[in-house]
Write a structure and sequence with these properties.
Elements lengths: L7 E3 L18 H17 L1 H7 L7 E6 L11 E6 L23 H13 L4 H11 L11 H17 L3 E8 L5 E9 L10 E7 L19 E3 L2 E3 L7 H16 L6 E7 L8 H8 L6 E5 L10 E6 L1 E10 L5 E2 H4 L6 H10 L22 H7 L5 H7 L13 H7 L2 E9 L8 E2 L2 E10 L5 H15 L5 E10 L2 E2 L5 H14 L4 E5 L5 H7 L4 E4 L14 E3 H17 L5
């Protein structure tokens, strides 16, 4: 039997869409600010209820859900429901559990849900405004959408101007590719901007291509509320989260209550690995006291996370030659060098040992995680489960136990491809040449140049005598680390806890994000966080963001700016 489909709400489009400018609307900020102020006030009023909700059993949790229309209503409405036990939670039509539904009722999630009861009524005009940005198909990977990427940059600039700030679209040179649009702007502090702290916010207004289109249940660039989610390409990565920062700054500025100068530096090439924003930052003389990046998420509902570190990357192409030409294995096998054997022996010098750790020269300079970080990692999904969920197999018996330490705080070497000889045809030869792509992820604290030199030295020393080794470094990027003891991190944790009732965990990323080390390199501690979830379908069809989290994100960003007024 087929399930009834969830109700779908297509967000009201602007009256005119011939240009982006035509869809912008002038709004008064006083009513909007009073809305958020009231929301935060109501959050405070339910603290006692939140504390009580963390115990199992007979506690009652109030939740608001987007329900299917009844015969008396023309559109889905928010429906409040109370449950005396988690197992008997009332579901609305179309409220289908996602992959993370097992995590909905963790203690931290219950605390956040209680607060969401106070912030769940998303204003229609807010949804309309966000939808204007989401409708722009700013796909940076497709040259046909270059004008759309530029239109998205213009939208961001106009929003900043409409909030009382200044902004400009900067065409930043991209070698061999013309210019890339950056949206650069600032909303000044309401009082004494010359002496007020400065916060630099980053977000990207480009999006991934929506293909395959046939897998989308609704149009990717027509925002649609379905169940508890808002669906659209870019809603989680990263337009929706950038909008939260823009909106929070606007509300405070229009009320005359913005205690910091909020700078925005946004790009339209994050999804294609561009470096324009990093180059801009290197030339920027203004700087900031803290950075904020809402382009991340949380591993489970209700548990915010701050990503304090990213790994760097050195990428190499290794070629070995063992003679002048391929040889007959029957005549020369066992006495002449085989390039495939030589390559395997060469690469073995940089691979992890039985304990999963790299050779010590490749571990130089590691900045160990703090006790607070390690304690927070214990609250995350067990490493063995994280490995098995991907259909993968652990490389050794301690891989699961060491999962977070190895992927976040240790370097790792991986061979990405091998070529040589004949892996498909029957050829009894000794290959004379073999090649490989291999990389090392750099742990926070490590120096790319130092580790790169050690990496190449180990390879050359391990090669069999008589082997010619050629190593080409294809790319290099430093790791980044924000001290967990920095004032910015402490104030940000306080802000998130104040709004959500849950103190963020301090985590790291195994990937490489160029902006984070770039900010750290100029002395700007960055708060990298966000409100996406594992089942937000980022980079996939049916990308989505919890409707509840839109209001929550604005309220949290607002409190974050207020707390940053204390930066010394």
């Amino acid at each position: 039997m087929n399930e009834p489909r969830p109700a779908m709400i297509s967000v009201r489009p602007p009256e005119r869409r011939s240009t982006v400018a035509n869809s912008w609307k002038t709004r008064t900020g006083s009513s909007e600010l009073s809305t958020v102020t009231a929301l935060v006030s109501r959050i405070r009023s339910v603290r006692a209820a939140a504390a009580a909700s963390t115990t199992a059993g007979a506690e009652t949790t109030k939740s608001l859900r987007w329900c299917s229309p009844t015969p008396k209503t023309s559109r889905p409405t928010w429906s409040a429901s109370s449950t005396s036990s988690m197992s008997s939670r009332r579901r609305c039509s179309g409220d289908r559990p996602g992959p993370s539904s097992a995590n909905v009722y963790s203690p931290s999630s219950i605390r956040v849900q209680t607060r969401l009861a106070a912030v769940s009524e998303l204003r229609q005009d807010w949804l309309d405004e966000l939808s204007e940005l989401l409708r722009i198909p700013s796909v940076s990977a497709d040259p046909a959408h270059a004008d759309d990427v530029r239109a998205a940059a213009e939208w961001v600039c106009e929003h900043i101007k409409r909030s009382g700030g200044t902004a400009e679209l900067v065409d930043w040179p991209a070698p061999g590719e013309g210019a890339r649009p950056l949206a650069i702007g600032e909303i000044r502090a309401s009082q004494n901007p010359e002496s007020a702290p400065t916060v630099l916010c980053y977000g990207h207004f480009d999006v991934q291509p929506p293909a395959p289109l046939e897998l989308w249940e609704t149009e990717p660039f027509e925002p649609t509320v379905r169940g508890e989610w808002l669906y659209a390409r870019g809603v989680a990565d990263d337009k929706g989260q950038l909008w939260m920062l823009l909106k929070a700054a606007q509300l405070l500025a229009e009320a005359g209550e913005l205690p910091v100068n909020v700078r925005f530096a946004c790009d339209g090439e994050e999804e294609i690995g561009g470096h324009s924003i990093v180059d801009w930052l290197a030339e920027d003389e203004r700087g900031a006291d803290a950075g904020v990046v809402f382009d991340s998420g949380m591993q489970r509902r209700g548990q915010p996370e701050f990503n304090l570190a990213v790994r760097g990357l050195n990428y190499f192409h290794v070629t070995v030659r063992t003679g002048e030409r391929d040889l007959h294995s029957g005549m020369y096998g066992g006495v002449s060098l085989n390039a495939m054997h030589a390559l395997m022996q060469t690469l073995s010098a940089v691979l992890a040992g039985p304990d999963g750790r790299l050779p010590e020269p490749l571990r130089a300079g590691i900045a160990p995680p703090s006790d607070e970080e390690r304690d927070g990692w214990k609250e995350l999904q067990p490493g063995a489960e994280a490995i098995s969920e991907q259909g993968s197999r652990p490389m050794d018996t301690s891989a699961g136990e060491d999962f977070y330490a190895r992927t976040w705080a240790e370097p790792a070497v991986d061979v990405h491809g091998l070529a040589g000889g004949s892996p498909t045809l029957v050829k009894t030869v000794l290959p004379v040449e073999a090649e490989a792509n291999v990389s090392i992820r750099l742990a926070p604290g490590q120096d790319p140049t130092e580790i790169g030199e050690s990496f190449q030295r180990l390879l050359r020393e391990a090669a069999p005598a008589g082997t010619d080794v050629e190593i080409a470094q294809l790319s290099s990027g430093p790791p980044g680390l924000v001290s967990p003891d920095s004032q910015a991190v402490a104030l940000a944790q306080d802000a998130f806890e104040h709004v959500t009732g849950v103190r963020p965990l301090l985590v790291r990323s195994g990937g490489s994000i160029p902006l984070v080390p770039a900010l750290a390199g100029v002395g700007i501690p960055a708060i990298v966080t966000g409100f996406a979830l594992p089942d937000s379908n980022i980079h996939s069809p049916n990308e989505r963001l919890l409707v509840d989290y839109i209001n929550l994100g604005v309220a949290t960003a607002r409190e974050l700016f207020v707390r940053f007024g204390q930066l010394a």
